[in-house]
Design a protein that fits this description.
heterodimer; A: mainly alpha; 4 helices; globular; disordered C terminus; B: alpha/beta; 9-stranded parallel beta sheet; 4-stranded parallel beta sheet; 16% strand; elongated
């Protein structure tokens, strides 16, 4: 996995952790950082990203933010964004 | 409600059972489709993580130190966190505060909570019985998100408390720069007067405060009458001057140099008779340009300790908002009645500040993550820091029963302990 992708996933996990703890402001700031990091991922270098899948997840992330659903948002960041980068979810076959 | 839950509630918390059953229905309740774990979603908000709720509860439980004998839980979601905390032998008391009765009832209808409810160490409480946060505590983030009016204050206090270490670390990042500015202002503090010379000057009087919320514009005609001394916050200065209102006192405690420049760079002739009360963290160049009298004051932060010891000056309370310092000045001047204008703590009509203020902006939807109830009983959007300032101010109001605080507008947040102009005083 590209270092840019690793960094983005680390940020996504950090955001999810904040949201699960009720640290809403920190969580949303991390998501803003994540958006910047995702922008910087060079898709042309053969990163295993399915752009359509990623777009769909990002749309759900935005929707969860808009409806103020911290744990739905945390689940998307932690358990659904990873697979879009070709990473399996721990504990799932 | 599931019978096993009802049975324990009826035995242990009969009054709460009545309260829960009389709660209004929720708009939308259902289970998250395809979720690995059974997860309730209420009005678009998941009560718990759908993938690994146990790990989530373990993370949340870390907010309560391992050796704690008592703990408070704000919201119980689907019960996982309460069960986990009760596994601790050392825990003697777990207070579970319900932030919204309809949300709690939905969870009692969907999940078996009888085990933890029956534990004798558990005390179930409703939010309206609790004015203040009890520590140590953990939260269910979904319950915070779904909290109704009764739970809004505790929700805000919990969010504020959780955010405090983060906000403090942010301040610490700028501490060196601000400390240097305080040091550079030493000569100015030495030459300028002391805010304490104003203390006690208006015993039993009425003072007006001009804050910079959007509703300030509703009061320009009244403020022009100059019936009472006016204390204005820096951000309100530009719009009130434009409206023909001249303040008697202006408060500035902002360490942001560019912001202060935007707020205070105004025609000198209108300000010669106004007194600027400032904290020494303010940019020296902006202070030097003030055409009228300047009085120095300190906040209670350690940042001022060295200067405070060398050059003692009066102190003003603020938890971060200049509005706090403005009100505290009025209180320390001896006011018996303080009328608030533009003290909105929210974004009525989507605006952050009164029109013409240096910071006036339409806040993006993503920033409006909080809500408060306005004077008409309607929910209006706000931002986390404003809600934090509101709750701190409510504590301040409670600590000053000798002063009557009056809000001139119902457009902004309802402030606990503050009445509206037309309301008769409670006997």
């Amino acid at each position: 996995m590209l270092p840019e992708s690793e960094r983005a996933l680390d940020t996504a996990r950090a955001a999810a952790r904040c949201l699960r703890l009720g640290l809403e402001t920190r969580g949303h700031e991390a998501i803003a950082r994540l958006a910047d990091e995702l922008d910087r991922i060079p898709c042309t270098r053969g990163a295993p990203i399915d752009a359509a899948v990623l777009d769909a997840i990002l749309a759900r992330i935005v929707a969860a933010q808009e409806r103020g659903d911290p744990l739905g948002l945390a689940d998307l960041l932690e358990h659904e964004l990873g697979p879009a980068f070709g990473r399996r979810i721990p504990g799932r076959s | 409600m599931r019978p096993e839950n009802r049975k324990v509630l009826a035995q242990r918390f009969p009054e709460l059972l009545v309260w829960l059953e009389s709660a209004p229905p929720l708009r939308e309740v259902g289970f998250v489709e395809g979720a690995p774990h059974r997860t309730l979603r209420i009005d678009g908000v998941q009560l718990a993580g759908a993938f690994d709720p146990r790990a989530e509860a373990e993370l949340q439980s870390k907010l309560v130190p391992q050796g704690s004998r008592r703990a408070t839980l704000y919201g119980f979601a689907q019960g996982e966190l309460a069960r986990l905390l009760l596994e601790r032998q050392v825990l003697q008391r777990l207070t579970v505060v319900i932030l919204d009765p309809a949300v709690a009832r939905a969870s009692f209808e969907a999940f078996d909570h009888a085990g933890w409810l029956a534990d004798e160490r558990v005390e179930l409480a409703c939010a309206r019985e609790r004015a203040e946060l009890e520590t140590p505590f953990a939260v269910s983030p979904a319950d915070l998100a779904l909290a109704g009016e009764e739970g809004a204050r505790l929700r805000d206090l919990a969010r504020l408390e959780l955010a405090t270490p983060f906000l403090r670390s942010r301040l610490e990042e700028r501490e060196h720069e601000i400390a240097e500015r305080v040091s550079r202002n030493r000569d100015l503090v030495l030459r300028d007067g002391d805010v304490a010379q104003l203390f006690g000057l208006r015993p039993g009087g009425t003072l007006w405060i001009a804050a910079a919320g959007p509703s300030l514009a509703e009061h320009y005609a009244k403020l022009r009458s100059a019936l009472h001394p006016l204390v204005a916050v820096d951000a309100a200065l530009r719009p009130i001057l434009a409206a023909g209102v001249t303040p008697d006192f202006v408060l500035c405690i902002d360490p942001h140099a560019e912001g202060v420049r935007r707020m205070l760079e105004l025609p000198a002739e209108r300000l010669r008779d106004a007194t600027l009360v400032y904290f020494p963290c303010v940019d020296p160049a902006a202070l030097a340009r003030w055409p009228g009298r300047r009085l120095a004051a300190y906040g209670r932060e350690a940042l001022y300790d060295e200067l405070r010891a060398a050059l003692p000056r009066g102190e003003l309370w603020s938890s971060g908002s200049v509005f706090h310092a403005a009100v505290d000045l009025a209180v320390q001047m001896g006011a018996a009645r303080i009328e608030l204008h533009g003290a909105d703590f929210a974004t009525p009509r989507g605006a952050s500040h009164v029109q013409g203020a240096a910071w006036e902006t339409e806040l993006p939807e993503g920033m409006l993550t909080s809500w408060v109830v306005d004077g008409y009983g309607e929910r209006i959007q706000s931002v986390a820091n404003l809600v934090g300032y509101l709750r701190d101010f409510e504590r301040y109001v409670r600590s000053h029963p000798e002063v009557v605080f009056v809000n001139a507008s119902k457009s902004g947040a309802r402030i606990g302990g503050v009445r509206y102009l037309e309301e008769p005083r409670a006997s």
